[in-house]
C-alpha cells in the first residue's frame, strides 16, 4: 500500500500523481528486458522500485501488459529526434517524473535538456541516479508547476538563450483541470517555444481509467480529455504538426495483445472527435 500526503496508509498503491511515474518506469523496464526491445532503459527498474511493481500488480489484468506506455515512449523518442534534426536547441520536460531520456537517448553532448518537477520527486530521482552520467547537458529544477508564478519564473530562466525549444508534457495533462491546461497553453505561447509535445486522452479513455481500474486512480483521476480532441489546441492558436495514435503505433511495434489486433485493422477515430465509448489516446506535437 502507498502512503498519503500525511504519511498514513492509503487504500491504493497510487497515493498521488507522482506515483504514476513509478508505474510507467515498470513498463520501461519490462520492455528493455525484451530481446526485441524498441528502447533500452537500464535505469527503469531501479527507479520503479517496489512501489512501482506493486502498482502494476494491482492493475486489472487486461491493462497489465503496458503496450500503450511502450508505444507512447517510443513515439516521443522518435519525435524528439525529428525535432532536433529540424533545429531544436533545447528540451524542457515539465513534470519529468522518473523519465531517463537524457541518459538513454543518443543526444549531442552539448544539447541542453531541462527537467522540472516537484522538489520531493527531483530529490528522489537525483539520489537514485547518483553516479550516472547523462549524455547531454542536463539541468533539473525543483518547482511546483501548479503555482503559476513559480512556473512562469521557471520558464523565463529555463528558456533564456533558446530560440527553438521543445516543451514536453508527457503524462501530465490528463491529471489537470481544463482551466489549468488553458493556463499552461497561454504560458507556453512564447517566442522561444517552437514545439509543444503532449499525450492526449480521449473521453473514452478517461472513463475507462477512472471507472474500470478497480479504484487504482482514485487519488490521481483523469480530468482532462476534451471531446473536441486536437481541436481544443487549434482553438487556442496551436497548429497540429503530428498526431500519432498510441493504438496504431502499438500495432506497428507488435505490442498489441492478440485480442486487439483485429480492431487495429478498422478505421481509426478522427482525432477531432475522439470516441466517448472506447479508449483512445495519441501523442501530439504542436507548433504555433
UniProtKB/TrEMBL annotation:
Q: What job does this protein perform?
A: Exhibits S-adenosyl-L-methionine-dependent methyltransferase activity.
| GO BP terms | methylation
State the top-level EC class.
transferase
Stated name of the protein: S-adenosyl-L-methionine-dependent methyltransferase
Listed NCBIfam families = mthyl_TIGR00027
Q: Please list every transmembrane segment annotated in the UniProt record, as residue ranges.
A: none
**Superkingdom per UniProt:** Bacteria
MF terms from GO for this chain are: methyltransferase activity
- Annotated source species: [Mycobacterium] manitobense
Q: Which family does it belong to?
A: Belongs to the UPF0677 family.
Q: Name one Pfam family in it.
A: LCM
- What are its E.C. numbers? 2.1.1.-
Query: What keywords are annotated for this sequence in UniProt?
Result: Methyltransferase, S-adenosyl-L-methionine, Transferase
Amino acid at each position: 500500500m502507498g502512503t498519503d500526503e500525511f504519511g498514513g496508509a492509503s487504500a491504493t498503491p497510487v497515493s498521488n500523481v507522482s506515483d504514476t511515474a513509478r508505474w510507467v518506469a515498470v513498463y520501461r523496464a519490462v520492455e528493455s528486458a525484451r530481446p526485441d526491445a524498441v528502447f533500452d532503459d537500464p535505469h527503469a527498474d531501479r527507479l520503479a522500485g517496489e512501489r512501482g511493481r506493486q502498482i502494476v500488480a494491482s492493475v486489472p489484468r487486461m491493462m497489465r501488459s503496458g503496450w500503450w506506455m511502450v508505444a507512447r515512449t517510443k513515439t516521443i523518442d522518435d519525435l524528439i529526434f525529428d525535432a532536433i534534426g529540424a533545429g531544436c536547441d533545447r528540451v524542457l520536460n515539465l513534470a519529468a517524473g522518473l523519465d531517463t531520456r537524457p541518459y538513454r537517448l543518443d543526444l549531442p553532448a552539448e544539447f541542453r535538456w531541462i527537467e522540472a518537477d516537484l522538489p520531493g520527486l527531483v530529490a528522489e530521482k537525483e539520489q537514485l541516479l547518483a553516479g550516472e552520467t547523462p549524455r547531454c547537458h542536463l539541468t533539473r529544477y525543483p518547482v511546483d508547476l501548479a503555482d503559476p508564478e513559480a512556473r512562469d519564473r521557471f520558464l523565463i530562466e529555463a528558456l533564456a538563450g533558446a530560440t527553438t525549444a521543445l516543451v514536453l508534457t508527457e503524462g501530465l495533462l490528463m491529471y489537470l483541470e481544463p482551466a489549468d491546461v488553458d493556463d499552461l497553453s497561454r504560458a507556453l505561447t512564447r517566442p522561444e517555444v517552437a514545439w509543444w509535445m503532449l499525450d492526449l486522452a480521449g473521453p473514452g479513455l478517461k472513463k475507462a481509467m477512472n471507472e474500470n481500474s478497480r479504484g487504482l486512480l482514485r487519488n490521481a483521476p483523469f480530468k482532462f480529455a476534451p471531446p473536441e480532441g486536437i481541436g481544443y489546441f487549434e482553438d487556442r492558436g496551436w497548429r497540429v504538426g503530428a498526431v500519432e495514435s498510441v493504438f496504431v503505433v502499438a500495432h506497428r511495434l507488435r505490442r498489441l495483445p492478440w485480442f486487439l489486433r483485429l480492431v487495429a485493422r478498422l478505421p481509426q477515430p478522427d482525432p477531432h472527435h475522439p470516441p466517448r465509448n472506447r479508449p483512445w489516446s495519441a501523442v501530439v506535437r504542436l507548433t504555433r
